[in-house]
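chain below, 313 aa
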Amino acid sequence: MSLSGLDLNLVLSLRALLEERNVTRAGQRVGLSQPAMSAALARLRRHFDDDLLSRAGKHYELTALGLALLDRTSTACDLLERVFSSRADFAPGSEEHEFTVLTSDYALTVFGAELTRTVHAEAPGVRLRFQQTPTDVTEDPATLLSTADGLLMPHGIISGFPAVELFTDRWAFLVAEANDEVGDQLTMDDLARLPWVVYQRAYDAPAARQLSMLGVDPRVEIFADSFQALPFLVAGTRRIALVQQRLAELLSGVAAVRLMEPPYGAVPLHEALWWHPVHTHDAAHIWLRETAARVGAELAASQPGRITAVAPR
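prediction:
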């Protein structure tokens, strides 16, 4: 349908009705009287040819379509707010602004910490809100990106959206210091034989997906939502874990583990900042991207070197 024939105020009413499930409270939320909100609900019901809210005793419940529209309406309102809050100019030294960035704890630790120091020095009124990237990021990345200012994620997981390159990293494996089943060098047999700890899912990283083409099917024992937890989940066990070398070096000494070179040519990680196209010409967002690119370039100048093998104790 054409947006020209749609009253966009109904989007706000729809969101309030679906979230409040009460005509009076929904009206109070958006500044409409109870009769005006009832009229809005009637228009919405005619538009969707669905009740949206159905009475169940003294309360209202969402219909199947109402449930489907709940998240979509929230996302649409968030996106509209971002569209109409766009700026033609942005002065970082004097502006107050908040950016929301989706990230893993890896990117937050390795890159986000450096970004916050630069932002603090150059834009004291700017706030950065970091949120954990959900596990279903690949299912509907457009909707996810519409709810935030950016997503820190390496290439090879999503595509089709604008991105700015940040830095590269190498992959390494973690094994327990006392794991005498692994010698000075990790082997493909070790990867197939030993139990794994993985971040969220076994094949999220391209370097992990390579293993299936090499005939190795990781025997995953533990799934974790934190890269920083991997050393502790490996220490004192037979387990192994694939981890980014920059993070592993930052965490060096926090757990009794050894850092080992992959026994295959693991593709490097290329970290990027992704965003929804709606932000492309926004002055504040342009500043965020340029600042992130500058911080990323400084980080990229210090490439991690090859890992020195350490014999098990």
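The first helix runs from residue 9 to 20. The CA atoms of residues 75 and 81 lie 10 Å apart.
thats it, cya
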